[in-house]
Specification:
The complex is a heterodimer of chains A (about 350) and B (about 300). Chain A is built from 17 helices and 13 strands. With about 350 residues, chain A is an alpha/beta fold. In chain A, the strands form three sheets. In chain A, strands 6-7-8-3-9-10 form a six-stranded mixed β-sheet, with helices on both faces. In chain A, strands 2-1-4-5 form a four-stranded antiparallel β-sheet, with helices on both faces. In chain A, strands 11-12-13 form a three-stranded mixed β-sheet. In chain A, helix 7 packs across helix 8. The two termini of chain A are about 25 Å apart. The model of chain A is unreliable at about 340-349 (pLDDT under 50). By secondary structure, chain B is mainly α. Chain B has one domain: MetI-like fold. Helices cover about 85% and strands about 0% of the residues of chain B. Chain B contains 13 helices and no strands. Chain B has helices at about 1-5, 10-55, 60-75, 80-95, 95-125, 130-145, 145-160, 160-185, 190-200, 205-230, 235-240, 245-255, 260-285. Chain B starts with a helix and ends in an 11-residue tail after the last helix. The mean pLDDT of chain B is about 90. Classes of the chains: A alpha/beta (about 350), B mainly alpha (about 300). The interface between A and B is medium-sized, with 35 and 26 residues.
Chain lengths: ~350, ~300
Amino acid sequence: MSDYKIEIKNLYKIFGPNDKSMVELVANGTGKQELLDKYGHVLGLKNVNIGILANSVNVIMGLSGSGKSTLIRHINRLIEPTVGEIIVDGENVLGMNHEKIRDFRRFGASMVFQKFGLMPHRTVLENGMYGLNIQGMASGEAEKQAKHWLNRVGLSGFEDRFPAQLSGGMQQRVGLARALATDADILLMDEAFSALDPLIRADMQTILLDLQAELHKTIVFITHDLDEALRIGDDIAILRDGELIQKGTPQNIVLKPADDYVADFTKDVNRARVLTLNTLSHETGSKEGLRLDGDLSIEQAMQQMVNSEYNLVTVMNDGTPIGQVSLSDMVGAISRPDATNSGSTTTYR
Amino acid sequence: MGFFDKFPAMERADLRDLKKGIDSSFKEFSRSWGESIEAFFDPLFYFLVNFEKLLLSTPWPIIISIVAGLSYWGSRSWKLSAGAAISFLFIGYLGMWDNTMSTVALISVATFICIALGIPIGVAMSKSDRLQSTITPVLDIMQTIPIFVYLLPVVMLLGIGKVPGLIAVCVYAMPPIVRLTNLGLRLVDKEILEAADAFGSNYRQRLFSVQLPLALPNIFAGVNQTIMMALAMVVIASMIGVKGLGVPVLQSIQNQYLALGMMNGLAIVALAIIFDRVSQKYGKRLQRHREGGSDV
């Protein structure tokens, strides 16, 4: 699979003095609790295999303690794995020596932190320049680049402030600008927006999506918030207790939760906003409906239908009809799964 | 019962032999190594002597302008700078100028040595827990052992004079800067260090661009403490032949010269206050970013 920018293979992380000898126990099914009680070791990650798609937003989701922050720190090796492989552009990060890993962190992958990780003694501009300083870029050029990216995240005019003088949302914009300034292909975002209040968070998501539409970075985005994951993720992986439970597109996660854990996560999601016409589209008859693009969400489609006399949609893909969706299909799809248990006949494609 | 009545101490003769043995072997050591150790400290001696000469030969108005200028540069406060100048004028008027210059020279050189040695030791300590647990007791000893106890071997080795005085001052004054450098570096926020690592900083970049700047408040508290403790040693240093404000204080104790003791004592206090306020204000000024802002 060459369209994976990063491939994580058979990754185990166990915290404790004899971590290597615990791998086999874990592989043979020793659980997290048992490992802690009997052997005094903490299970971080268990046999994780994930392919990170190039040029897209890859969300890794899980509750606290699920190992997601541990996982992202393996990619730039802030944490050493117990066993496993992490292949970036065909090269195993875990085989790199100190020099190489430093270069990879300087030029290959930059990071945004939950608590921003800004340097309080540096101004906003100096923080933006940090990665470039470390790269060894001449300070004139670094200043120019940092200013460009600070401008892109909407911080022009704040260059001479100190981080403590900014609000949380603005501080994280500095964090984002600092990470983008290094021009690394990979952007690692560890719960980058989790510390922000909901409105600011939505703002930041919009900024990120706008930038991504233009930059096409490979983004690994950690979150515990499913709404955030569904909004920005092209691909979502769900972790529990250090194990990968499910991986797929947002639609897939919502429609086909792999188990109760995932189903629990997804039950309060606004389905109308996540599901698209494409996913519901199926062949019924030849009856002509309102022609709508398949990428529209159900929410958008319903709004359009209200303004027309149709109660049937003909789903269009590149100008050709590929199927139909009825109003009752839509209503069925957006109702919560526990409400549809009682013999609904809705079928999804 | 005899066992419980009297502590089972060493035989007197054995104890005497033990002490004699230690004494004679140290004398032996100082006889054979004293000169080379003295030669080792020669550069320090010349540095101190020449610095003192420089201060003494510079016309007093220049010294006072330098004092006022440095105070202003450090504290950005006209009041403090004027206060420093006035104190020096008073000191000179009361006939203590030369002694004050000698003391300023000693304190400056001692502080410089303490910083030059103490900060690197503190940095090394912050990196290694093992080193920390080795050095901490040494620092405890340096601070608590009665000064005369280590003064004696130093005098036996190097004789009486400036260098042993300087060493005595440094032994006593160095622990705070080492401790507080170590503490300051250990207290730097782990998240910020992780960010520095994530962007590929090497050890030097991390130390100089993140750790030391963020540890600065503590390091400055250490520098301040070191200066204060060095000043506290001035009188004791005068006992082993260091010139300066300590000498008249010592004389006044021996001869009950109340006024002489008071004046010189107050001159030491004036120096302490000037050094303390200026260094504190300077330290604070470096922490501009901590003030935060209400304007956003």
